[in-house]
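Hi! If you just cloned this repository, the fastest way to understand the data is to look at a raw example. We've pasted two of them here, unedited. The first protein comes first, obviously.
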Amino acid sequence: MNPIRLATRASRLALWQTEHVATLLNQAGLPTEVVHMQTVGDQVLDRSLAKIGAKGVFTEELEESLRRGDTHLAIHSAKDVQSTIPPDLELLAFLEREQVNDVVVSFKEDFDIARPGIVLGTSSTRRKALLRRFYPEATTAEARGNLQTRLRKLEEGQYDALVLAYAGVHRMGYDNLIRHYLPTGQFVPPVGQGSIAVESSRFLNEELKIKIKQALDHAPTHRCLLAERAFLRRMEGGCSIPSFALATLTEAGDIHLHAGIVSLSGEEYVDFAQTAPAAQAEGLGLALAERVLSHGGEAILASIREQRGEL
């Protein structure tokens, strides 16, 4: 059997994710080959993600390789996948989710996030907005680059701490630098945080698709992300919009979704929570998005677009 070619970004974390996928496929009797690529998001580091302006800044090049037939699967951090997938592509699987929290990382063992005047590095529009809301005495600073680059800048003293996703910090073995776990009740994660998404062409062999899904897909995670991604799709947002959503399964097997949006300043904050049967995951996400939009979310989005000159 010819190997399944896996497209991945050229970073240590992306490689870890892809090797994890490859291991699961190999265990299912499906040989693999890893293909490394550079994306716009990896190459353009002197501007914030919001200012780059393109959708799919971490996925487009990988998706083009699927269309050309150069690769069979593209491996993404689920939080990097744009809200709407092109019609010729599909998300085949979501791997079991890691802990979803944002964490504060510092080389200072006594670091206190509540200390006035600290500088927190992050490239996330959502994290910046939430930090302005919940820690207004802190200053946020742009922190682009892969995890190792950002940690080097932290060690050089460009920031007092970094705010990152626990999943990436843990997978790269930097748990010893975690000083605070930010509560998900306040710092609700972005759609998909903690999971790995596997994308393919819709025209990939159907029998092969079934085998890949059986080897990789974690059904509870997939159900939760259906709700989150439906919310994101209706919000028409991506990594440059400070929206958030976290779906979890209840003991009864229903889906509980907490989602919303915060203004860039952190002053305006709209969030709601709702529960529905798992079979209605996408409907739940759409309904909650409508609720957020009609209770101030639409005005927040309009303000953000106006500030960025998109109107």
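Ok, and the second one:
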Amino acid sequence: MPDKPLEISLNMTAKELYDANPEYKAFQEGDAQPMGVTFQGYDFPTSNMGKAIFHYSDDSFKIDQVVTILAMDKVTSEQRGLNKITVDFFFDTTDNGISDEDAYQKMMAFFKELQGKGWTYAKSLSEPRLSPKDSFIFATKEGGSDFNLDYTYPLNFEQWMQLSDLQIWQLRHGTDVSMNIRINRQSDPETGNRHYLISLDIFDELELIRQIIPNNYDESLTKEYSKLYGGLPEARLFFETKAIKMGLKIQQNQPDYTLPLVLKETGIDTSKFISIDPYKITYEEFMQRSEAGEDMTPYYENQPTTKPEITSQAKGRCLAGQPCPKSGYWFTLAKANSRAYFKQGDIMPDYPNNQWGEVI
């Protein structure tokens, strides 16, 4: 294995990636897919794992024990940069595995390094506004969601062991780079050895927006975002109602942030996101009264006295397993890219073991 770490950065092209790392040519792997897409990257055997440095803005971090680097190259697009890169690596250096205590220390050290480099928790507009400590309670209690765990909360070892064996943290650096960190904690059934596979999904602002919006939309991306934005207060109320029932306190002054591309293309300033006050009404009550035609403006925070345009669009609600009440396109926040056409009377699908909870 070369001594020089492999150099990667977001939005470099596949050619630039390979040209910058000639020492790793033997490990290159490209997999052509339909529709002019090729997965580009590197594959290393666990007996000879690689090293990589990921560059972003004017900073970087190093990753050891790398087994896979994978990026999607949209060769038919004018923008051929790799705007999403996945890096898989192990905490353990041999097949003997690693102790939970050592894995905990390594992850906490990595988190501390990222905090020192300016990475913050990437809370989305539909997530409950909780303190870092309460985000852990919400992530580990039945009915909560481990997708909402703030990575800046200093877990102790006992709390570390309470996390799901498949745990995800959401981070961002400014508004131009996002990163999801996923741990997969497993025990070898034959030897009992403990293994931790860590995956870093690193992506830019455009890829983040594509993850928010279903990829089979009929209109422009910006129009679809404008439509979706109107339903986000209800999604947040759904989770904040759960949090209040757990005895957690909603941080109503917790700020949101704006993606520059969203502001530029739609005029929506998400840093001034309008929320529904969870202390005035529950999610169930809000939906019942809203669907009955009542003006719900008084229950919004930081809301003008007139009903805003974002709440005036037609919308519907149906639980998984129930018949579709009206023909049309439907989607659920419980599954990415779920938007599909359903006829009236069709049974709406369920997506068990999702990160959101109840499928609506």
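That's it. A detail worth noticing about the second one: The CA atoms of residues 64 and 350 lie 39 Å apart.
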